[in-house]
Write a structure and sequence with these properties.
Homotrimer. The chain is α+β, with helices and mostly antiparallel strands. About 30% of the residues lie in helices and about 30% in strands. The strands form 2 sheets. The protein has a 5-stranded mixed beta sheet with strand order 4-1-7-5-6. A two-stranded antiparallel sheet has the order 2-3. The termini are close together. The chain binds the ligand Nc1ccn([C@@H]2O[C@H](COP(=O)(O)O)[C@@H](O)[C@H]2O)c(=O)n1 and 2C-methyl-D-erythritol 2,4-cyclodiphosphate.
Length: about 160
C-alpha cells in the first residue's frame, strides 16, 4: 500500500478555456499554463507520482519541452497511470479538493469523477472530488487563480 499527495495552482486569465478534471467548464476565464493547465489532473498526477516515489510532473513533462505545449493533461495522467501499473499498483481511493471562489463546481463534479475514473481505470466510487471557496480571501478568493489538492491511496494489484 502506498500513499501520495498532490497540490497545484494555475492562474486564471481571459482567453483560455477552463478545463478541470478533463471537463471543459463554461466560464469567462480559463487557466494559464504550458499545457492545457488542468490543475486537478496535474494534482492527481503528482499525487500518483508521489505514491510510487517517481518525483513530480515537472520531472516527467518539463514545461521547457515543446512536446508538452498545450498538452492534454488527460494524456499526461494516462502516462503516469501506466507507471503506477508498471510498479504493480492500482487505485485504492483518492480524495481531491478544488479551491476556487468561482465558478460553482457542483454541477460538474459527477462528470469530473466519471472522467477521472476512466483515466485511472477505477470505479467512480473510488474517486471523491470536493470544491471549496476561500471565502473571498487570498489569491483564490480574489479569483486570480485556482488551486487543487489530492490524496491518493494505491494498493497492490
Ligand atoms: N467553486 C466552488 C466552491 C464551492 N462549491 C460548493 O459550495 C460549498 C460551500 O463552499 P464554501 O467554500 O462556502 O465552504 C462547497 O462545499 C461546495 O459544495 C462549489 O460547488 N464550487
Ligand atoms: C504540465 C506542464 C508541462 O506542460 O506544464 P504546466 O501546464 O505549466 O503545468 P505545471 O503544473 O506548472 O507543471 C507541469 C508542467 O511541466
Amino acid at each position: 500500500m502506498r500513499i501520495g499527495q498532490g497540490f497545484d495552482v494555475h492562474q486564471l486569465v481571459e482567453g483560455r478555456p477552463l478545463i478541470m478534471g478533463g471537463i471543459t467548464i463554461p466560464y469567462e476565464k480559463g487557466l494559464l499554463g504550458h499545457s492545457d493547465a488542468d490543475v486537478l489532473l496535474h494534482t492527481i498526477a503528482d499525487a500518483a507520482l508521489g505514491a510510487i516515489g517517481e518525483g513530480d510532473i515537472g520531472k516527467h513533462f518539463p514545461d521547457t519541452d515543446e512536446a508538452f505545449k498545450d498538452a492534454d493533461s488527460a494524456k499526461l495522467l494516462e502516462h503516469v497511470w501506466a507507471l503506477v501499473k508498471e510498479k504493480g499498483y492500482k487505485l485504492g481511493n483518492m480524495d481531491c479538493t478544488i479551491i476556487a471562489q468561482k465558478p460553482k463546481m457542483a454541477p460538474y463534479i459527477e462528470p469530473i469523477r466519471e472522467r477521472i475514473a476512466q483515466l485511472v481505470e477505477a470505479d467512480v466510487s473510488q474517486i471523491n472530488v470536493k470544491a471549496t471557496t476561500t471565502e473571498k480571501l487570498g489569491f483564490t478568493g480574489r479569483g486570480e487563480g485556482i488551486a487543487s489538492q489530492a490524496v491518493i491511496l494505491l494498493v497492490a494489484e
